[in-house]
Amino acid sequence: MDQIKIRDLEVFCNHGVFQEENVLGQKFLVSATLFTNTRKAGLEDELSESIHYGEVSHVITDFMKQHTFKLIETVAEQLARKLLLETRHLEKIQLEIKKPWAPVGLPLDYVSVEITRGWHEAYIALGSNMGDKRAFLDHAVEALGEVEGCQVVRVSEYIETEPYGGVEQDTFLNGALKLRTLLPPEELLQLLQQIEAQAGRERIVRWGPRTLDLDILFYDDAVISTELLTVPHVELQLRSFVLQPLMQLCPYKRHPLLGKTVEELWNALG
C-alpha cells in the first residue's frame, strides 16, 4: 500500500501525568505515515482522490491542543482513531508521538510512543433458532452497524438449516455479514458476545438452542488460536450453513490454513 508521510509536526500542548505539564504545556513532535492507494490520484492529478496532508496536519494540531491526556499512549490511540474514522481513503496509520521535554531528570533526545492502527475485514456468522429468529438476526446486523469503528458492508440472505451437533431442537435461520472494523479480534469477540447477551443468549448446552449466535469466521487473513478465540472458525469447511452464506459474500476468499477458496470448500462439501 502507498504511503504519505508527515514527519515531526511540532505542537505545543498540555499532556502529561504531572499537573505542571497540564498547566504550562510543552512541545510534542508528531509523525504519521498514512497508508492509502495513491494510484488514481497520481493518474488523474486530482487531490480529492488522495489524502490532503495539510488538512491532516491541522486535524492533528487541533486535536492535541483541544484535549488533555495524562499518557501519550492515550494521545496516540485517540488521535489514530479520529483520523481513521474521519479521513477519506485512509486505510491504516502509523503514528508516533515524541515528547522531547519529558520530565525524567536525565539527558535524552525524547521519549515516544509509536502505534499502528487500521481498518480490518471480518466475516461474521449469524444464527438463531429461538423466538423471532429473523428479528434477532436483523437486530445483530443493526447493532453492529451502530458501533463506532464498525461498518457493515454487506449481509447475505438468511437461510433455514437443520440443527448441527446432534441436539434435538428447532431449525436455524443462518446468515453471514462482511464487516469493516477498527476493533482487534479479541475486542470484536467481546462486542459480539455483548450483542448476544442483549438478545438473551444463554450458553448452557453445547450446540444447543440459542436466541442469537455470532461467530468470527475470518479476520483479514489472520490465524488465531487462543483460549478464547480461534480464527478461522473451527470446522468452517464442514458446515454448509456457514459456507452457503459466505458463497454470496466472498466466494474467492482463501482460507489461510487450508489454502482453498470458499467456493472450493463449498464444492468439496458437495
From TrEMBL:
Its EC number is 4.1.2.25, 2.7.6.3. The keyword tRNA processing does not apply. SMART domains: FolB. The keyword Membrane does not apply. GO terms for molecular function: 2-amino-4-hydroxy-6-hydroxymethyldihydropteridine diphosphokinase activity; ATP binding; dihydroneopterin aldolase activity; kinase activity. Catalyzes the conversion of 7,8-dihydroneopterin to 6-hydroxymethyl-7,8-dihydropterin. This is Bifunctional folate synthesis protein. The lineage of its organism: Bacteria, Bacillati, Bacillota, Clostridia, Lachnospirales.
